[in-house]
Amino acid sequence: MYGLCDCNNFFASCERVFRPDLEGRPVVVLSNNDGCIVARSNEAKALGIGMGQPYFQVKRLLEQHQVAVFSSNYTLYGDLSRRVMATLRGEVPEIEIYSIDEAFFDLEGMSEPLDELGRNIRQRIRRNTGIPVSIGIAPTKTLAKIAAKLAKQYPKLNGCCYMHRAEDIHKVLSRFPLRDVWGIGRRYGKLFDQMHILTAQQFIELPESWVQGRMGVTGVRTWRELQGIPSLPIDNLTDSKQQISHSRSFPHEIYTLSELEPIVAEFTTRCAEKLRGQGSRCRTISCFLLTNRHREDQPQHAEALQHNFEEAIDSTLQLVKVARALLRRLYREGFGYKKAGVVLGGFEAAQNQQQSLFGATQDERHTRLMGVMDRLNRHYGHGLVKTAAEGQKPFQMNREHISHRYTTEWSELLTVKAK
């Protein structure tokens, strides 16, 4: 059996941990620069507030219903996520962290009744972290995903859905929307809508050869998993990310290249620091620019470019140089850009790197320099040593509703007054 631990409305729940007065009150969390809604409590969902809805469109509705509004506080969310995962890791043989608010776990060798185990895990996580979670347990990871959704939907399950009997699985899949199955996505969802294949049960009744021809190996794995055949084992060996990105929406549209260049340079520096922090080097770097799609009165432009290195590198200096070159090719005069980002990919372990026959792409002096930069910035604070391309003034986000970093910053610890 496999399990999935899914934190309920995670960002909103994090804000409630140190604000018990918010229990029962609608809560929303905004994206970077307070642009869009990225998390909603159940009470906020009941008001009809949509995921991804621009803040300015619903601001009056939020005020009318006294909704608590927060800017994204990723420092707090990341720390609480680590605490959730630490508790889960202590309860089961092994886990696979899937995202900041989800983790799969293996139940091989567990003797106690699994539904009781799931409820106990849920209670311990709530006690240790204050975060409510839903637990799904089933014969495969894909079915565990579905079980976790059911645990959220039906309060009588008490936060844990143990889905193991064949007749129960068949009953669930006969009603479960195929579009909501992990691994189907929008692309295949449209295809199956056109074919009037709307439920997960209808999907697994298709011939394997048809699934293989249309969806490839990935589709066949999903097809088998829904039939209770494990095809996606727990992967607890890939702690390092396989892609690192840094992107932000801007407080206002930016029209000039001179304003965009230091921002993209700073984003690239952040990515490079994370890359070296996990002991990796990258073979690709991508840069993208987006205008404000909500401004129908302005011309629109959205484009991305990628550069491939002959040999994997981790030098901030080289990565910033290439990112700026990509930006200059992307930039179009007369457009107001609302978002930019940098993505690194094609990772290799730095210590196992095989050099090119035509000489090293990265100057070894850069390797030593990056080591010195990272040590200084870790010891004295981020941004002490940086590239000239980043400019003097770091990129600032709109965060008018930011909460305290209660668990990681001494000056922002919770204050309790005794009467």
Short description:
The chain contains 13 helices and 13 strands. It is of the alpha+beta class.
Give the helix/strand layout.
Layout: E1 2-7, H1 10-17, E2 27-30, E3 37-40, H2 42-46, H3 55-64, E4 68-71, H4 74-89, E5 94-99, E6 102-106, H5 114-129, E7 133-138, H6 141-153, E8 160-162, H7 166-175, H8 185-194, H9 200-204, H10 208-226, E9 244-254, H11 257-277, E10 280-291, E11 302-313, H12 316-330, E12 337-345, E13 348-349, H13 364-380
Helix pairs in contact: 4-5, 11-12
What does this structure look like?
The chain is of the alpha+beta class. A hairpin with a 2-residue loop joins β5 and β6 (102-106). The longest helix has 21 residues, at 257-277. It is globular. The chain is 39% helix and 20% strand.
Which key features would you list for this structure?
single chain; 419 residues; alpha+beta; 5-stranded mixed β-sheet; 13 helices; 13 strands; 39% helix
Please compute the radius of gyration using only Cα atoms.
24 Å
Kindly state the percentage of residues in helix. 25-40%
Average residue-wise pLDDT: 88
- Count of helices? 13
Give the low-pLDDT segments.
none
- What's the count of strands? 13
Structural class: alpha+beta
* Order of strands, widest sheet: 5-6-1-7-8
What gross morphology would you assign? Answer: globular
Strand-residue proportion: 15-25%
